[in-house]
Design brief:
4 copies of one chain form a homotetramer.
Chain A (H helix, E strand, L loop, with lengths): L2 E3 L15 H11 L1 H21 L7 H11 L2 H11 L2 H10 L16 H38 L4 E6 L2 E7 H24 L2 E2 L11 H4 L3 H11 L3 E2 L10 H27 L7 E3 L18 H13 L2 H8 L11 H4 L2 H20 L1 E3 L1 H10 L1 H4 L1 H10 L5 H15 L3 H7 L1 H9 L2 H8 L8 H15 L2
Parallel strand pairs in A: 4-5
Antiparallel strand pairs in A: 2-3, 6-7
Chain lengths: 462, 462, 462, 462
């Protein structure tokens, strides 16, 4: 085994964001070069299985290949590649040297390299989605769902443009992310299931396989069925790029939702707002020089990783262009997709840790709410005036707010003083008056909606 | 009407790529500021309709609003905005000044600006998809489908890495794009139908509407149903950004398919390849200085537009981040989505024109095919040798190809000379020998597959 | 003149962000298609001038061409292009039909289209930089410089990670942008001066011009000198793409500085922070439904425009790849550079308007400063303790801050209570003690530095 | 030492593109986490040196720190960070535990984390540029310069739009890249020298250092001078982001030049063009299934790496926005810059290997040139006719070319047959006639220009 000091590595995914061995091993299982080779070997095995079923190769071949691929190491394949200068030919050689003379010709039979490479990648990303990505993301969704439910009645000032607007509840604030994240998880699910394989040969026309099979598309279907994959409608040397493009879009747009959440929480943690906090361990240092600091470093990290990986979508779009039956200019570039997945998983794991320990500072939430309490009711007041027939309610209330700022009187008090408006006031129902007098009741259906959203997603993914 | 010399415009979409008045008008109907305002007025009307149905506002209100919005011009709204500094308040003022005193309070009733803006945009993009984008794209798909069908048997050398590989047919080459483009059209269809509206108020909690309705979500549903839209599961001040993000991804990944096609055709038009040509009108000038030139300017233009618009996806991802119940930093940026749509439509229209007049140079296709005819059979030869039990067929044939290059003998002749190989040859069936002797037969199922793909998509969109 | 309702336009630069006619005309002068054609005609004139100087063409030719180009309209060129399908041949035809038979052959003599197109674009971007972009940016710089100077002593809490750190002054906060923006302006200056022209013919080897001149590079130099431009070291059909790539990088990285400023000001305008405000006109509406709102819409707009245009850099990088002596795939894409410039200018103009009317709320700045005043001194305290020989000062103070949070005592008081620390305290000089007791003095050299930076840039660009 | 199977790594830079140990070690020296830590330790040492010089700390301190930092391993720092949750505090602790009690307080004295982190990064990128990046790039430049010189007289058809245009020489084709690459190398040089450090404390106002120094900017200057760096004009907690943004732009725009070269060579290697080839080793396999293939895999790889890394520029632009005195959202993202550098170096090394072994197929260059030899002369013919007074030379020759295509006659022959044109012909000088009769002479000053460019850059970087 070729080993190396992990801190000699260049990508931060391979040293900094892999400090937890367990997490790294879980990712490496799908995202490393070992994984890449392992899945390629699986595809070569699937081929031989179908050949044996169809009586084209010796019955013993699948067992021989199964045993061979258990022995083959990535290192051996790379050593062979150093000679052949061709990675898949190297892989094939490594299998062939382990099997009987009779089986040997059927290794890679009628296949082109990318029948193996693209099929293997679709398979490992599909598996990674099923077994790693989706479970991790759903875990975070559950954490958020619990916070939303718990805080569904906690009145919080709603903020638009960074300005106090009208009230929501903190649970409703979180429910936004439960809903958006839930939808993204479904999109990842859908697009990962849509990843395709191929067994259509060097230019996609089944040239080689049609020498041996009357039904080369059926043959392709059988091989892919062994791997629980489907073929694309048309291949060239490679699988059509759109399914992986959609899959990566699903991942990146999910990453944006994580970054949006992180940004919101960062700002709620500002010194002047301070509605939430990150639990700080006793020995933790906030700043190398300002011992009093409590920085939202985890949320900052998530946004930062998003900035690092989001632009990769450009690469995917460029990789949709491959000349004629293919050029190889998508080969190196597509080798960086695993790093994006690792980045997303790292961000999600971090958000889960920090969300689980989120501290909600109810006193500060209340204090901030009180700050503009008087003004908040401008909206219901104007709408109620309009509903009661005031012909220019918005303008009337806008002026009232300017006066309120100057005089320190509440809108309610100003209404009472106004010859023009006080008649309208008397027309209001008790419940309507209550909204003006107790702005904290003006939360619409924030609580019910929160509950509904949480229930939906808890059911969806239970 | 505020008019201006079109060549004073800054965006090339507004002068250069709008030279055909008919095309420009078709786009402007959905993509201009006039369209933007028109759809916003439609949303304000839908609101009043539902209020009237529910008996909240005068019965006559919808008719009054309907008449009002027919009169309102964009210019008037902009003049009003110059005073209010708020675009939707300006719009509302323009309606209110046209309706009766009784109706006036119900204009924009309980709504926040983005109930109107986001709903109107979802509506116009959905309509643009249904009535403009999808029909135009399907037209191009049909053009390609016809070429594919017509050329399904035309043998062409397959090219991988720009190198001659094994044969396909030209129809099969085109069928690739029929299939990929067809799938993208379906994705645009799906994602345009998924665009969402909202009527949930300033922070998405239905604060205002819940004063008047016990079922504010039903009320939202009713208003949106008037416009044939659905609500998102959760809104803040704005509709959740993912549906439009997915829609734009569908557009951009479609644009990539057009660019990929354009690139392939450009290269087929190279002087040394010259398999296709663009029909040149009698007066057309190829170069200002080289009168003999026939340049693939239309394909180049399509790729160039793709380069201009593809990176816009980064904007959409950044716009997924909007602080708390929203900031406005997605407002100006999202105003550029129409330009992307116009770019895509311009590219598709151009490709349709040039594809319709595509000249296929069969003589050159044949000449290119002949160039490496001898070598092409290396693949079936190696596979057949392997199938007949040769233990190291790939290597044997690789060496044969080196020899063929040195000696000018065909692989077939070299096989005949080889003590080792000629025994295998005799073992080949007649049909197998034929493939080696007549490489133009080695096209796999290119023709059948082409037919199948074309039929599928002609049925899908007929 | 072909006119059109401006609201029928598709790009928001051509309706929404061009509402001020004066601003639009200033931009259109360099950034429209009219400008594009005008500069191309200038290049054709420069060519004829040099031919006449060298005695190759009739003496009267320059005057004839000068008169011709004054008459030619963009519309005429476009009509001609509809026939020739070639834009520069159309342009040449329009000139030729206006000049004498003797002059006619010397129009466009030895030139290729891109001798004209690329030279004209370099020229107009250079001129746009000199006459429009740089003056506008320097105006904004001066506005900021004045704010910085005025606020140089206004103590403000410094914020890192959104957390209160140690003090700065508000002037110092602004000086950051004076400095960063100043450097960017210099970079734009440098890179605009580095834009290059060419007169090297169809493939850059001076094939045509070397028929007539022994010194074709001298000839190129002369033509470009007429336009105050230099040639690139090597051209193909086009000017090497790096100078324009650098220029656009300079513009975009400048745009980022504007967006960074806007972001900072947006956050300072948050309800809970409220250290600055945007002056609101009496009739201005903050929200269509919440009459009390004062939104940072101008800062939001600037960030939003940045998000729209920043990704265009990807287009420039892709355009660095042009096959062999050039393909045309950079043609349409480079037509969008003017829109980016218009976006940048729009953002700068808006920032200048809003910065000029910036309201600094000193009461709130003070209030926010007071909030963590006690904790701020953790840094100087720890450093002073260290300097006085405390072996583990950071840790000691970190624990003190935890205690301060629990007990409501100041760090100073806790030091006084501490057996371990009070000895150190007595060792402090009076000035040092003062820093701990009056944290508002702990601003380092913020004021001096601000002054120095402001002076430097006021001198640099006076 | 924490070691790991290199194939368990996730980033392809850390397994696939690091197969040559020597190359990897050279990169790792600057680009790994070990390098990152090593340079941070260097900065801490520089600080203590200056403190000692100024008499603030014990004379022995620098030596103690020097010895300490030699012992410290990355692993130890990471273990410490696991406790402190703060990377620089961990680093400081590791030093402090190794030095005397007297020295201890002066470790990191008055510094904030980013005084260390940003200074260290500027330093290592500057060093990486000087010692690794620039030498490697200059090596490739020399290789290209040699090819250009050697091929300066080799006539080659110039290609615009993929169409045969007029002749150049192959050396001139390569000289394009010598020139563009040379200019980029100078830009990297310039921008790497402009990377800045800082020693201005937590918010950039020298709050802490001004307690101890009357001239904190001088103190900063001294510390940075130890490292051969300069300070930025203004810092916040971090160095202003523009210098690194410019540096990365220089790298990426250089990468584009490599990709452009690779693309050109790829296309010259097409089966139908085949003007150059890549030397193939005897055992090398071109395709796993088509033994005859010789694929331009190295050029494809370079373009592919460019597609992977180019979009990272978006990250740098986003990182220009850091709230107030800084947020941390540029921390993780900027950790990926080394990977970009590694990608660029990998591409350059690969291009150097493949350029060194470039095979120029003169026979094919000639064959391609012959293909349109007749037509090539359209350009000089039209210009000469114009110069001799033909009033509509371009149109006359354009028609001639159409006739030439129909009749198989050469333009010369057609001119001879033309009543209208033959008079002009007789007017041509002998040298001019020669150009029409021997198009291979129509190369302008391609050879001289090539020589000039090569000489310039060989001198520039000798």
């Amino acid at each position: 085994m070729l080993t190396r000091d992990i801190f000699a590595n260049i990508s931060p995914m391979d040293h900094r964001y892999s400090k937890r061995k367990k997490d790294f091993d879980a990712m490496s299982k799908y995202l490393s070069e070992n994984a890449s080779i392992k899945y390629q070997l699986e595809v070569e095995l699937a081929l031989v299985k179908v050949l044996a079923e169809r009586g084209l190769c010796p019955e013993k071949a699948p067992q021989e290949v199964r045993e061979a691929i258990e022995e083959i190491t990535t290192e051996e394949v790379y050593e062979e590649e150093a000679k052949t200068k061709h990675n898949i030919r190297a892989l094939v050689n490594c299998i062939q040297r382990r099997v009987s003379k009779e089986t040997r010709p059927y290794i890679h039979f009628t296949a082109t390299s990318y029948d193996i490479v693209d099929t293997a990648n679709s398979l490992r990303y599909k598996k990674a989605a099923e077994e790693l990505i989706l479970p991790k993301l759903k875990e975070l969704l559950q954490t958020w769902a619990e916070i939303a439910l718990q805080e569904k009645d906690q009145v919080q000032i709603g903020r638009t443009h960074g300005q106090h607007a009208v009230p929501v509840t903190f649970g409703f604030t979180i429910a936004e992310y439960v809903s958006r994240f839930g939808e993204r998880i479904k999109e990842i699910e859908l697009k990962s299931q849509n990843l395709r394989g191929k067994f259509a040969g060097a230019v996609g026309a089944y040239n080689a396989s049609s020498i041996f099979f009357d039904d080369p598309e059926e043959f392709e279907k059988d091989v892919l069925a062994e791997l629980d994959l489907k073929a694309g409608e048309h291949s060239t040397q490679i699988v059509a790029p759109e399914p992986i493009t959609d899959f990566v879009h699903a991942l990146i747009s999910t990453f944006s939702v994580l970054a949006a959440f992180a940004d919101d929480m960062r700002h709620l943690q500002r010194s002047e707002i301070a509605e939430i906090g990150e639990y700080f361990s006793k020995d933790q240092v906030g700043s190398s020089t300002m011992p009093h600091k409590r920085n939202p470093i985890n949320y900052e990290n998530v946004k930062s990783l998003w900035k690092a990986f989001m632009p990769q979508m450009n690469t995917l779009y460029m990789d949709q262009l491959s000349e004629h039956q293919r050029d190889l200019t998508n080969s190196a570039s597509s080798r960086f997709i695993p790093e994006l997945i690792a980045g997303l998983l790292s961000a999600a794991a971090r958000l889960n840790r920090v969300s689980t320990k989120m501290v909600v500072d109810k006193a500060n939430i209340r204090k901030n709410f009180e700050q503009n309490k008087k003004m908040i009711v401008a909206e219901p007041l104007y709408i109620l005036l309009a509903a009661k027939g005031h012909p220019d309610a918005h303008e009337a209330v806008r002026k009232l707010t300017l006066k309120a700022q100057e005089t320190d009187l509440s809108l309610k008090e100003l209404v009472a003083q106004s010859e023009e408006l006080k008649g309208f006031w008397e027309d209001f129902s008790d419940k309507q008056k209550e909204l003006i007098l107790q702005p904290e009741k003006y939360t619409g259906i924030a609580a019910e909606k929160t509950e509904k959203i949480v229930k939906r997603w808890q059911n969806e993914f239970k």
